[in-house]
Design goal:
This protein is of the alpha/beta class. The protein has four helices and four strands.
């Protein structure tokens, strides 16, 4: 049987995370599309996971960022949101093209290959 919980929440559930040690960046077209919002909010309030929601349509260029932030560099945006990203494990979950852009941004931000983990899905 497939685990129907949010894949990013699965990563947080299994991790020994202290308050303030984890940042979850959630990208969606709008707030109504946030899957498992109650579970994510639980991690924010009970585990101290910092959640950054990025809403809006896709950028015209290949990017993990929404269009309104497309003027920022992808790696620079990650470093701004998670300044210690280069020394962190990064879990990327999403559809193929978005995941490719997010993985490239993470690598460009200094994340080592062994610390970059991916789970693909599509709607």
């Amino acid at each position: 049987m497939r685990d129907r919980r949010h894949p990013a929440a699965g990563a947080a559930r299994g991790a020994a995370v202290r308050a303030g040690e984890a940042t979850l960046v959630y990208r969606a077209r709008n707030e109504a599309e946030v899957a498992f919002r109650a579970e994510l909010d639980w991690f924010a309030t009970r585990r101290g996971v910092r959640i950054i929601y990025l809403f809006g349509p896709r950028a015209e260029r290949p990017s993990w960022l929404p269009a309104k932030f497309a003027g920022y560099g992808d790696a620079a945006a990650l470093r701004q949101m998670a300044p210690l990203i280069a020394d962190s494990h990064v879990y990327v979950c999403g559809p193929d093209a978005w995941t490719d852009a997010a993985r490239k941004a993470a690598a460009d931000a200094g994340v080592k290959p062994g610390q970059l983990h991916t789970e693909l899905f599509s709607w």
